[in-house]
Amino acid sequence: MPGGVGRRFSCRRIPRGRAVHFLPRMPIVTATRRLRFNAAHRIHNPALSDEENTRLFGKCNNPNWHGHNYVLEVSVTGPVDATSGYVMDLGALREIVEREVIDQMDHRNLNLEVPFLRGINPTSENIVVACWNALAPHVAPARLSKLRLWETENNYVEYSGDAAV
Ligand SMILES: [Zn+2]
Q1: What's the topology of domain 26-164?
Q2: What is the pLDDT of residue 25?
């Protein structure tokens, strides 16, 4: 093409205007908000016998429930906004996480009272995936990049969506 540009910069080229402009490099940053909730649960698989449940889950299968002080760490990733300097306002992220998951689980029985956990054996693994599915659609334009759920001081699980596995 006459006077054409021999190289392609399709990702960063601004298509309008006579000159070819390039966007400045946009750093991609991950920001994390930590939230806490308390909840009761029983780890139980109704497809198994009582003996198998006891053998598999031990004390966590106690039919009279037990509780945890959970900590949920929510990470979002994206470009740093030129105006705000944020990936995402972490106060806004807190409100989303509280509305979509924390307020539903806090001081509740995870087996009986939480709509988005209905029918799920509430292990930390299953809880974190359910939280992911509840939160992921709500953090745009940032991207939910990781959830870490602490069940005790010593035990946590992480989930980054199936694409990251
Ligand atoms: Zn437990």
Answers
A1: Tetrahydropterin Synthase; Chain A (3.30.479)
A2: 73
